[in-house]
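Homework help board

Subject: predicted structure for assignment chain

Our instructor gave us this sequence and asked us to write out the predicted structure in token form, then describe one feature. I got the tokens but I'm not sure how to describe them. Can anyone check?
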Amino acid sequence: MINGKNVVVVEDEPDIVEVVSYNLKREGYTVTSKNRGDEGLNLIRNQLPDIVILDLMLPGLDGLSICQQMKSDPSTREIPIIIISAKGEESDVVIGLEMGADDYLAKPFSPRELLARIKAVLRRGTARKENDSQRVVIRELVIDVARHEVKIGDLSINLTSTEFKILYALASSRGRAFSREQLLNQVIGLGVVVVDRNIDVHIRSVRKKLGKEYSSMIETIRGVGYRFVEN
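My token output:
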């Protein structure tokens, strides 16, 4: 099986590197790895991989610094990043997401879940390049930015402007974890002023209006924020 995708793994725990590399190679990915942050960043800049799997606690250069430098460099800015982190590093995960990382996995994680996350992140990147129509369709749920309209089948869902923008941000990047700050920035970037923790209030309202089937797709990530998953 050959999919032509190149993955760089920056992780200093040999057992994790071995398991991740083995499972990715079985799926046809080309995998290279470094156990130091500074060496990992150099490898990323030289290879320009399709995706980076990044630990946070690294010798040489920590994962947050790598993420920050990647996102400030035009040559690496668009490379997606999945953070792998110990559960005790939740605050660092939030910072990583705010810096532009696409998703995170808490250690320990299953290789199967990591593969699913990688595929989802790569699919989103492909979809963004191929289609920037600002219309999201998930089963019978349709979010249309041009019409500022949300419908489930023939039923119109009446959302406030802020609720609409939060839902679109989540649903248009399915599978991506958003911190509250990221969602707040999405809304502010579209011209609405909101207080940080009011995001939770808006999420509750959106869930209620969407009904049971679709509200369950807005997943709460404890200590981080939210993501939209298609059940």
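Reply (TA_rk): Your tokens look well-formed. For the description, you could write something like this. The domain at 6-129 is CATH 3.40.50.2300 (Rossmann fold). That's the kind of observation they're looking for.
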